Each structure stands twice: as C-alpha cells, then as structure tokens.
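The instructor's notes for this session suggest beginning with a concrete chain rather than abstract definitions. Hand out the sequence below and ask the class to guess, before any prediction is shown, which regions might be ordered.
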Amino acid sequence: MRSFKVPTREEVSANNQAIFDTLQKKLGKVPNLYATMAYSKNALGNYLALQSAPSSLTSKEKEVVNLVVSQVNDCDYCLAAHTTIGKLNGFSDQQILEIRTGAVSFDKKLNALAALTKSFVESAGRPDAALVENFFEAGYTNENLVDTIVLIGDKIITNYLHGVTKVPVDFPAAPALSAAVA
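After discussion, reveal the predicted structure:
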C-alpha cells in the first residue's frame, strides 16, 4: 500500500497554510489528519466548515456519534481524538468506552442516539426501524435526525481518510474496547 507522509506547512497551498496557522493558534498543533487533508487545495477548508457548522446536537451528543462511528469503522486515529474530546466534554473514561459499544446505560437519550448511530453505520444507512422510533421516543426531533446523519457523514470522511493513509496518530491512544466489557 502507498505510504502517506503528513505534509508540512511549506508543502501545502497558500490557503491551506493560512488554515494551518489558524489551527496552530487554536489547537497548539495541526492534527496529522487535518494536515493530510491539505493534499487537496479545498478539502481541509471544506471539511472544517462542515465540522464547525451549527448543529441541533449538543457537544456531548456529537461526541457520542463521533465515538460510535469511529468504533464501528475501527479508526484508531478518530477514536484517539474523540476520546480526548469526549473527556473535555465531561465524559469519564468508562463512559467513553461504554459509548463506543453503542449502548449507553447511564443516559437513556444518549443510548437511543448511540444505538441508532451504530445501526446507521453497520447497515450502510438503513437503520433498524425500531431504533429510529426509539430515537424519536427519547425526545429527538426530525432536525436532530438530519443533523445526526450529517455528523455520521462527517466522521466517515475522517475514518476513511485515516483508513487509507494510516498517518501517525498524534493524540493519546484510545484504550482497547475490550476494557469496557472486562
């Protein structure tokens, strides 16, 4: 398989250099997966616009979706990044492991979101009808459903990019899921 090098600031377009500068100021680094998007003149800016777009989902709900999608797609990079972000959003280590299974015992509403997300990804967009109904019964709306689907698409982009590039993970490694069921 082709080897992908993470491009440096000097190796990307002027537009992407400006984005790198912004990321460096905001995050203290340019995450490797974002830098890899900069092989394209447009992908990084387009992706960051999608990722930062307003959503009807809370930060915690977004992390549930991100963690479940990344687990189903077995993306070490995104699991590491979203374990870190999940902690910043108030989830404990054990809660993060549980979320990744697609079943959340500590919050009924988040459980409905996690289960539906898992079903969406495992079935290539054709979730179990009972899980869709459970999602709405838990208090979610049509707007939430659409935003969940958009967020699933967002995370699939990065999962697939890492799946093919295998750029180094520059976040603390996520613990193995087996720890959640041990």
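Then share the key points. The mean pLDDT is 96. The longest helix spans residues 142-165.
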